[in-house]
Amino acid sequence: MTRILILGGGFAGTECCLQLESYFQNDSDVEIVLVSEDNFVLFTPMLPQVASGTIETRHIVTPIRTLIKKQNSMKIKLKQLILNKKLSHFMELMKKEANEFTMII
Fold first, then answer.
1. 3-state secondary structure of 1
2. What is the pLDDT of residues 36-59, one digit of tens each?
3. In what helix (H) or strand (E) does residue 14 lie, and over which residues does it extend?
4. Whole-angstrom Cα distance, residue 21 to residue 13?
5. What element of type H or E holds 21?
6. How far is CA 55 from the centre of its chain?
7. Which residues of 26-62 are buried (b: 16+ CB within 10 A; e: fewer)?
8. By C-alpha distance, which of 57, 58, 74 is closest to 13?
9. Are 32 and 72 in contact (CB under 8 A)?
10. What confidence tens digit (pLDDT) does each residue in 59-94 have?
């Protein structure tokens, strides 16, 4: 089984996840895990319009779960992440259990 870990749910992380999902859509042997501090994507270029009252905040916020279907999303703060030869340790989240990933993006 191929396991892919994507760190960050911003523009790049979300787009990378979307592209990988599209590429591996029919392959059940691929697991994609997106780790993000937030469970939404914020379109920051439009923040001034929100501040001025031209648009509402809900117009620039999109939940990640509505964009991406195949991935497993984890909402955590990465306080301690140790990368060692494709091995990722999430001390707080996984209770000191190590998860092996084929790729870390």
1. coil
2. 878 888 888 999 999 999 999 899
3. helix 11-23
4. 12
5. helix 11-23
6. 26
7. eeeebbbbbbbeeebbeeeeeeeebeeeeeeeeebee
8. 74
9. yes
10. 999 888 888 876 665 555 554 454 554 445 554 555
Q: Which residue has the tokens 């895990």?
A: 33
Radius of gyration of the chain from its Cα atoms, rounded to whole angstroms: 16
What letter represents residue 35's amino acid?
V
CATH assignment of 2-104, given 3.20.20.190, 1.20.1050.10, 3.40.50.1820, 3.50.50.60? 3.50.50.60
**Token pair in block for residue 31:** 């697991």
Structure tokens at 22: 């599209």
